Amino acid sequence: MEALKKYKGEGVTDQMINEDIVMAGNVYDIYRNKAIKPNLEELGIDRDEGEDFTMFVQNQIDIINRLKDNGATVDEANKDVESKVT
Questions:
Q1: How many CB atoms lie within 10 A of CB 44?
Q2: CB 26, CB 61: distance < 8 Å
Q3: Tally of CA atoms within 13 A in the half-sphere of 40 that contains its CB
Q4: How many CB atoms within 10 Å of residue 2?
Q5: What does each of the 86 residues of the chain score in pLDDT, given as a tens digit?
Q6: Pairwise CA distance, residues 52 & 36, whole Å
């Protein structure tokens, strides 16, 4: 995917491609994660078929993104507090 940076279209940035690379890695990690097997079985989801697994992965990516966003917000708040205390 790194090679796509050479052929990017108008309006596409390296940052967009980097974000896609990270998301592709996250999707792959979720797909290969054997620890989620009990969760999938409980939900009746087959990892190799249907849209249920796609929705499961999309939900996991959404959770990852929310945690990342919340972490950034906490970091910003901590810096703000530190600047006011020092």
A1: 7
A2: yes
A3: 22
A4: 9
A5: 777 788 878 888 889 989 999 999 999 999 899 999 999 999 999 988 889 999 999 999 999 888 888 877 777 777 777 777 76
A6: 14
Q: Which helix (H) or strand (E) holds 30?
A: helix 14-32
Residue whose pair of structure tokens reads 């108008």 in the numeric block: 10
| Confidence at residue 86, expressed as pLDDT on a 0 to 100 scale | 62
Query: Cα separation of 39 and 59, whole Å?
Result: 13
CA dist 45 and 28 (Å) reads 17
Task: Tell me if the pTM is above 0.70.
Answer: no
Q: Which of 49, 50, 47 is nearest to 27 (CA)?
A: 47
Kindly tell me the number of DSSP H helices and DSSP E strands found in the chain.
3, 0
- How many whole angstroms from its chain centre is CA 26? 5
